Amino acid sequence: MRFGRKCKISICLILSIMLFSAAVPVYADAELTNDSIKQKESAISDAKKQVDSLKSGLTDITAVKKQLEASRDDLNAYITKLDSSLEAMQDKIDKYNELIDEKEKDIEKNEKELKKAEATQQKQYDEMKKRIRFMYERGNTTYIDVLASSESFGDILNKADYIEKLSAYDRNRLDEYARQTKYVEACREELKEEKKVLDEAKKDAEKEQGNMNDLLNEKQAQVGDVSANITNKEAAIKEYEAAIASENAEISALEKAVEEEKAKLAQANARQYNGGMIA
User: Fold this and answer.
1) Residue 82, CA distances (Å) to 87, 93, 224, 263 in order
2) Which of 51, 125, 162, 253 is deepest in the core (most CB within 10 A)?
3) Are 270 and 26 in contact (CB under 8 A)?
4) Are 254 and 43 a contacting pair, CB within 8 Å?
5) Are 61 and 232 in contact (CB under 8 A)?
6) What are the Cα distances from residue 45, in Å, to 59, 245, 251, 265?
7) The pTM is what?
């Protein structure tokens, strides 16, 4: 009987040790799992905040990219108008060149006419001198006196009215010469003035064309800068999208790990007791 009692005590002691030994690792695993779950859930929360921040940045940079694209489109539209205006300006300059060429030909023609008129003048003057010399040789000194005392051909004309013996023929020829020479000279001055106006108009047009070309180059440079900025923004958008995808992948992995650890924890808790008995 005594031996049987001792045997029962020994069995109970052994069972108690076994139960205690089995229970300790379960509690340790539960503690570690709960800490790990909390850490992962904290990491998930931080990652989601990071995703929200990245999405906000992505929204901002996308808006900036759209603004830059609108600016680029406006600049390209303005450049198109400038190109059209430059073509019209070039047509105007070409027209001025044609008109200037015509005026130069007219001036050249007028110069020939003036030389012809001057030759006629000299011829008339020589003929008049011959007649005066003829009359002098016949004993009339009035003409030679006028010729000798006159300072110029114009002076002769002014004194011609006072010369009674100057024939009507000579007077008419002198008047005709004066009118012809005056007309040719007036035409020459008018043509030169017209050419001067055309030269100034062409110069102004070329200056305006130069300003438009400078503006065109400036706008084209701006388009280049804006396009480069858009390219940079597109690269930044891709980086944002890649970072968001990376964060989402990390979140998914953490969430999966949390679910797995929660399942393991539930299984561990279920093994501890089963209706007050060891599972």
Assistant:
1) 9, 16, 17, 71
2) 51
3) no
4) yes
5) no
6) 21, 16, 9, 21
7) 0.58
Max Cα distance, the chain (Å): 202
Could you count the other beta carbons within 10 Å of the beta carbon of residue 244? 18
Q: Which residues contact 111 (CB under 8 A, 6 or more apart)?
A: 188
**Residue whose pair of structure tokens reads 């701006």 in the numeric block:** 222
Task: Determine the Cα angle at 156 with ends 128 and 168, to 5°.
Answer: 55
Q: What is the pLDDT of residues 226-272, one digit of tens each?
A: 999 999 999 999 999 999 999 999 999 999 988 988 888 888 777 76
**Which residues are CB-neighbours of 3 under 8 A, at least 6 positions away?**
none
Give the DSSP per-residue string, 35-100: HHHHHHHHHHHHHHHHHHHHHHHHHHHHHHHHHHHHHHHHHHHHHHHHHHHHHHHHHHHHHHHHHH
- For 35, the token pair is 């800490």
Give which of 194, 190, 176 is closest to 117, Cα–Cα: 176
Highest mean pLDDT among 161-170, 193-202, 260-269: 193-202
Task: Give 11 or 237, the one with higher predicted confidence.
Answer: 237
